[in-house]
Amino acid sequence: MKRRFVAFAYVSVCIGLCAALGATFAAAIQPHLLQPEYALTDRLIVRLKSAPVAVVQDVSAAALISGKATAIAQSTVRVARDAQTEHRQKTTARLQVLTTESLTPLRTMGDGSHVIRLSRRMSANEVQAIIKRISPDPEVLEVLPDRLFFPQATPSDPQYVNQWNLGQANGINMLGAWDITTGSSSVVIAILDTGMRPHEDMAGRWIGGYDFVSLAERSNDSDLRDADPTDPGDWVTAAEAAVGQPLAGCPVTDSRWHGTAMAGVIGANANNGLGIAGINWSSKLLPLRVVGKCGGYESDIIDGMRWAVGLPLPGVPANVNKAQVLNISLAALGACSALMQSAIDAVNTKGVAIIVAAGNNNGAQAINYSPGNCAGVINVGAVDNNGGLPSYANFGSVITLSAPGGVGTGVTAISTTMNAGTTIPAADIYTQVVGTSVAAAHVTGVASLMLSLKPALLPTQIRDLLKFRTRTFPNAVVSGSATNCNQSLCGVGIVDAMSSLTATSTFQTRVPQVIANTSGLGLRSDGILFGWSGTGAPVQRTDISGVTRVAVGYDHTLALRADNTLWAWGNNGSG
Fold first, then answer.
1. Which residues does residue 522 pair with via DSSP β-bridges, in sequence order?
2. What is the mean pLDDT of residues 182-209?
3. Where are the beta strands (DSSP E) in 217-304?
């Protein structure tokens, strides 16, 4: 029997002036113009021109116990780690000469960049002034502020409701999709968020994971980085948010359990007589805790992304549960940093898709929020229960597609798993949330089902199979929504699980082709076409993508796309 929903409310933290913070924070100022004090950073990321000191991983505890780690291997790790520490200290000391601001070396990232702590959180202008002073160092490639990213979902008054978001009329059409697959236990879904709670409706689903929160004031579990990704709660008290404190200006809030909420949408167990049904009933969930009290640092998130797919990190044991898809329901104001783009590229190169939230900033332009404005991600916007654009949701041309994010309270929001604790963990409960975070979780769930059918799908293939099988935006205004969605605001359409899985089940892996008629044409395995003539270099065709097969005549070409549309060009009179 379904359990009743227990009343539970908390304030969600968003970047900028958050739509969900109520009248106190939802001022008339445009959210994309200013950052509140709590979103300011006290860290820098220093990228170096020279090859970084070799990245090493800790010898795992299991290897030590089994005796597989030799004294030589352990000595090698220690030597490399000492070299990294020395390099970081020397770099910081050299930069310290260039500024009066106190610089403290913290750690080395997976790509060799150094994280340096400032004496306090500073305004964007103050940080840029320091960056300007230390950037001329001859070994420095780039200095970036270590931005804080924030969850993008908002809870509302919980009560038992039907999961309209999974239905055919206004949801993602899961009923028919589950007849195709309910997931594969060999697929691993990484959830980069606040960590996990061992909720009753996720029994047997969590696997491995890591806690990447690297600052004591934000970690709330006293042990910083370790192999325990459990969410201890991220509440902020008035005393912690007072002037002069490390979390000064942060909204006073109860614990949010955001990672557990995303996990419920993606993968809550089904047919177990409890709570809700997730989208994927079988795949494993890899919890990566990258957000603590009042947000998470960009450097911690990037390290979590790299580790999730098996890339090495200094001081962190290797991940033996490599993910096939990443869910990042977080956002920060600003352009896509080179460091974030580099991490996304590295993850994509591993063949792993990244699903991100467009952001909740009172309807701001999504182009202004990272990582949704980076290349190589599937950026998800939100629709309400009528298929319209909610007032909280960011919008714009960088959004790939949309999914249910809900609106308001009760039956129009999204039901998911939660914890009753307002500070430390308490009982397992169910609640409702709204936001682009939960919209992204829907798409991650569908993508994981696609991978359950075809594990070798590339990120671009997953993107195309999702995009080309969406449901058209309805006229939602006539049903009570404030604004209709269209492709310039909300992406190509609303994700349709059954249609995407049907297309996936018959999808044939693209075989690279090179063909020639009066000119040359090359089809890459990711569906990108290149053309050339004579002795000229191949040039990518930007007017067409998602191509599965090409054929040519004497002076004309046919291209079949993943959406089954046929494109033709050239001189048809020649063949």
1. 514, 530
2. 97
3. 284-289, 296-297
Q: Which of 102-111, 272-281, 367-376 has the highest mean pLDDT?
A: 367-376
Q: Dihedral sign, CA of 430, 435, 437, 442?
A: positive
Do 284 and 185 form a contact (C-beta atoms < 8 A)?
yes
The encoded tokens of residue 112 equal: 């060799």
What is the model's pLDDT at position 21?
Answer: 24
E strands in 239-309? 284-289, 296-297
pLDDT tens string 68-91: 556 665 666 676 777 888 888 999
For residue 87, what are its two tokens? 């390099």
**Contacts (Cβ under 8 Å, ≥6 apart) of 337:** 144, 147, 298, 370
Closest CA to 395 of 454, 293, 473, 292: 473
pLDDT of 19 strictly over 70: no
The residues with which 520 forms a beta bridge, in sequence order, are: 516, 532
CB 154 within 8 A of CB 392: yes
Taken in order 198, 201, 205, 209, is the CA torsion positive or negative?
Answer: negative
Give the distance from CA 408 to its chain's centroid.
24
Q: Are 41 and 122 in contact (CB under 8 A)?
A: yes
343-to-353, 370, 485 alpha-carbon distances in Å: 12, 13, 31
DSSP code of 324?
Answer: S
The radius of gyration computed from the CA coordinates of the chain, to the nearest angstrom, equals 24
* Residue of 117, 67, 112, 76 lying closest to 96 (CA atoms): 117
32: Cβ contacts below 8 Å, ≥ 6 apart:
16, 333, 361, 364, 365, 368, 369
- pLDDT tens per residue, range 263-297: 999 999 988 888 899 999 999 999 999 999 999 99
Per-residue CA distances from 238 to 166, 218, 245 (Å): 39, 15, 10
Dihedrals φ, ψ of 356, to 5°? Answer: -130, 160
What pTM, to 2 d.p., does this model score? 0.80
> 274, 264 in Cβ contact below 8 A?
no
| Catalytic site positions | 193, 258, 437
User: Per residue in 425-462, is it b (16+ CB within 10 Å) or e — as a string?
Assistant: beebbbbbbbbbbbbbbbbbbbbbbbbbbbeebbbbbb
Give CA–CA dist 97/496, Å, rounded.
57
Task: Identify the residue whose tokens are 């990443």.
Answer: 326
Q: Dihedral angle at the C-alpha atoms of 429, 231, 196, 312, nearest 10 degrees?
A: 170
Give me the sign of the Cα torsion angle 524, 529, 534, 537: negative
- For the four alpha carbons of 410, 412, 414 and 415, in that order, the dihedral sign comes to positive
Nearest residue to 255 via CA among 239, 241, 238, 236: 236
Residue 51 has pLDDT above 90, yes or no: no
